[in-house]
Amino acid sequence: MAQKPPSSDVETSGHDDVVDPGTAVERSTAPQNPGLAPEHQRVTDLDDKEAKGMERRIALFFVLSIVGSVFAAVAYVIFPIIPGDMSSVRMNNLTVGLGLSVALLGVGIGAVQWAKALMHGHELVEERHPTRGSDESRQAAVETFQQANKESGFTRRSLIRNTLFGALIATPIPAVVLFRDLAPAADPIELMKTTMWSEGVRLTRDPSGIPIKASEVTIGSAFHVVPDGWKDLEHGKLEEKAKAAVLLMRLPVDELKEDPAKTDWSYQGIVAYSKICTHVGCPVALYEQQTHHLLCPCHQSEFDVANHCEVIFGPAARPLPQLPITIDAEGYLVARSGFTEPVGPSFWERQL
User: Fold this and answer.
1) Whether residue 200 sits in one domain with residue 56
2) Residue 88 lies in domain
3) Are 321 and 192 in contact (CB under 8 A)?
4) Is 254 helix (H, G, I), strand (E, B) or coil?
5) Same-domain status, 76 and 204
6) Cβ contacts of residue 275 below 8 Å, gap of 6+?
7) Among 194, 291, 345, 352, which one has the highest count of C-beta atoms within 10 angstroms of its own C-beta?
């Protein structure tokens, strides 16, 4: 009779019954999720009197922000900048800066204190769903927002809410006052249409101020031009130059496509156009003599000098204004009149 082999300590009759000793050790020593620490209770959570006091202090910060915004706007008017007086510049910057600092710090500190001291900070973990949640989960989200509104006290704490609204409304006031003061006091159309150019004013080189004779302007050349007398201005020199700057060029007469009503605006192929781009006011200073094109380097607007500086490429909305010219008894180039249309960007022409 055959002998039965001795039985072993580990049964091997079934695959699922085999246990890896190493795996068993790993499972027993794997770190466990400790969970969330107990929520820290703040003083304002435990004492309603402290919560009320903190609410009043936060509202005070918001009120301080309102005062700072109003003070900045008032200080800008009370302490104006006087041209040539550096003390007025320092006083204006100091007072307006202080007001703006108080306004921004007040609303910032108040908002931070509100979040830290009064809004509840319950810790929670939510699983993200890769697809649209069920109706139950969406309803739970709505309830979560409602609960957040309740815990933040935004609806219930009317003092904080109203002062916060006041601070936010008052914050843009200084910006409105400051930026409004940058606008011209008069009609911008007349300001841009009226320059130093008038009948008989000589065209002079920029920046030397030397008058230009027609014989000096050769075909293919380009001159940067300012009106005679510009260098003698005591005030507003840069402002006047910004409006009156002109480019002077000479083309073959047979290549000029002139409007019959403007044939006397040029002189023997010499034409003068505003140097200020009609897009955003950059200086148009690149002249290509072979194609007779002017290029604005800022946004690549391109103008055809041979055809009344019509826009042939780029964002500019209209041609460069032309300055009518002729010569005087000595052969110097002079203006027939001023510009007949506003110079510069089209948005400068809008009524305030």
Assistant:
1) no
2) 43-123+142-180
3) no
4) helix
5) no
6) 224, 245, 246, 247, 283, 284, 285, 320
7) 345
pLDDT digits (tens, 9 = 90+) for 31-73: 777 777 777 788 888 888 988 999 999 999 999 999 999 999 9
Q: Under a CB-based contact definition with an 8 Å cutoff, are residues 348 and 342 in contact?
A: yes
* CB neighbourhood size of 248 (10 A): 22
Residues 245 and 311 in one domain: yes
CB-CB contact of 313 with 321 (8 Å): no
The domain tally of the chain equals: 2
Indicate if 335 and 233 belong to the same structural domain: yes
pLDDT tens, 72-120?
A: 999 999 999 888 788 999 999 999 999 999 999 999 999 999 988 888 7
Q: How far is CA 193 from CA 149, 189, 196, 240, in A?
A: 57, 6, 10, 11
Structure tokens at 309: 């500086």
CATH number at residue 332: 2.102.10.10
